[in-house]
Amino acid sequence: QQWDIAVANPSNTKTDINGNVTDEQISFLDNAIRHFTLGAELFSEGAFNLRFGYNFRRAKELQLIDKRTFSGFTAGFGLKMNKFKFNYAFSKYHPASNANTFSLQINLN
């Protein structure tokens, strides 16, 4: 594991009235939170379940300046019917990039 994974965003530089440029400062807490991903699954034992997740690193590194884009959020569901299980997941990366993932599981027993 590498501790220092946060990278300063060049779009977050500040320029004062004298023309001095200040780079984005990354705090200890900001660097620490980027190591975490949260996830939850509801109704995991039934025929239908819901899944939600949040990736702090993806959210911070793919955000747009002064706009909430919901980068880092994921959601999905699963349906179980007899020997088949269908899963769907949606991942938000950036306003111009989303991922939709489908899977079909078959129990051969």
TrEMBL record:
Organism whose genome encodes this protein: hydrothermal vent metagenome
Lineage: unclassified sequences, metagenomes, ecological metagenomes
Protein name: Penicillin-binding protein
